[in-house]
Amino acid sequence: MTDHERRSASRKRNGKSKGVAKPYEPTRQELAATKAFDQPAKSKALPPSLTVNIVGDDAKIAIDHPSAETGATLLLRELSIFVPAFKTK
User: Fold this and answer.
1) Which of 20-24, 75-79, 80-84 has the lowest mean pLDDT?
2) What pLDDT band is residue 68 in, cutting at 50, 70 and 90?
3) Of 4, 38, 40, 48, whose CB count within 10 A is highest?
4) Per-residue pLDDT averaged across 43-48, rounded?
5) Is 40 within 8 Å of 67 (Cβ atoms)?
6) What is the spatial distance between Cα 51 and Cα 63, in angstroms, rounded to a whole number?
7) Of the candidates 71, 69, 67, the residue with the CA atom closest to the CA atom of residue 45
8) CA 47 to CA 63: how far, in whole Å?
9) Burial (Cβ within 10 Å: 0-12, 13-18, ≥19) of residue 44
10) Who contacts 80 (Cβ-Cβ below 8 Å, separation ≥6)?
11) Which pLDDT score is estimated for 56?
C-alpha cells in the first residue's frame, strides 16, 4: 500500500474525507478578459520592430520607430501592458 493510499484510507476511517471538490467556475470578469483576449482588435496597429546591438557582453535593445514615445506605446499595447509608468518620457 502506498503512502497516498494509506492517508486516503485513514481519512475515510476518521471521517475527515472532504469528498469531491466543486469544479472551477470562472467569474464574469475572467470570462470577459478571456473573450477579449481571444478576439483580435479590428484596427490594430503593428508593433514596432526592435533592433538589438551587441557589443562584447552587453546587448542594447531599441525600438525602431520615428517617434520613441509612439513606438513605446505600440510595443506596450502589443504586450498588454497598460501601466503609464512604463512609457518613455
Assistant:
1) 80-84
2) confident
3) 48
4) 70
5) no
6) 6
7) 71
8) 10
9) exposed
10) none
11) 92
- Cα-based angle 29, 34, 40 (whole degrees, multiple of 5): 130
- In this prediction, what percent of the chain has a pLDDT beyond 70? 64
* C-alpha cell belonging to residue 51: 533592433
The one-letter code for the residue type at 70 is: T
DSSP assignments along the chain, one per residue: --HHHHHHHHHHHHT----SPPPP---HHHHHHHHHHHSPPTTPPPPPEEEEEEETTEEEEEEESSSHHHHHHHHHHHTT---GGGS--
User: What backbone phi and psi angles, to 5 degrees, belong to 87?
Assistant: -70, 150
Residue with cell 470570462: 31
Grid cell in block for residue 84: 503609464
Q: Which cell is 66 given?
A: 520615428
